[in-house]
């Protein structure tokens, strides 16, 4: 190999290693942020359930079977519930 090709190869290797270092630093930063905050945002399976007795719509986490949100039914939802019986 001549000198020019070696220099080009060196430049490409340095660029590739620089990108790998940047990716690793990003991953370390993200893991550190999660550890410090002691929480992580991620998608979890949920289900909306109509509670016709309370006239509310509840959102339940399916992995923990925990109700995480409740709200009053809209007029349309209340009407829809009447015909389901």
Kindly describe this structure.
- With 85 residues, this protein is an alpha+beta fold.
- The protein folds into 2 domains: 1-42; 46-83, no CATH class.
- It has 2 helices and 3 strands.
- It has helices spanning 3-37, 75-83, and strands at residues 46-51, 56-61, 66-72.
- Strand 1 and strand 2 (56-61) form a beta hairpin.
- The N and C termini lie far apart (82 Å).
List strands and helices in order, with pairings.
Elements: H1 3-37, E1 46-51, E2 56-61, E3 66-72, H2 75-83
Antiparallel strand pairs: 1-2, 2-3
Key words describing this protein structure:
alpha+beta; 2 domains; three-stranded antiparallel beta sheet; 3 strands; 52% helix; 22% strand
Content of β-strand: 15-25%
Number of strands: 3
Mean of the pLDDT scores? 91
Residue windows where pLDDT falls under 50 for at least 5 positions: none
**What structural category do the secondary elements indicate?**
alpha+beta
Give the total of domains. 2
Radius of gyration from the alpha-carbon trace, in angstroms: 27 Å
Largest sheet: 3 strands, antiparallel
Helical content class: 40-55%
**Order of SSEs, N→C?**
HEEEH
Label the overall shape: rod-shaped
For the termini, the CA-CA separation is 82 Å
Query: Order of strands across the biggest sheet?
Result: 1-2-3
Secondary structure tally, helices: 2
């Amino acid at each position: 190999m001549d000198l020019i090709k070696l220099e080009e190869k060196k430049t490409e290797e340095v660029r590739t290693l620089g990108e790998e270092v940047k990716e690793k630093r990003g991953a370390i930063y993200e893991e550190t942020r999660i550890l410090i905050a002691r929480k992580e945002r991620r998608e979890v399976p949920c289900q909306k359930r109509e509670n016709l007795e309370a006239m509310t719509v509840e959102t339940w986490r399916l992995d923990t079977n925990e109700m995480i949100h409740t709200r009053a039914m809209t007029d349309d939802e209340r009407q829809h519930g009447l015909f389901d019986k």
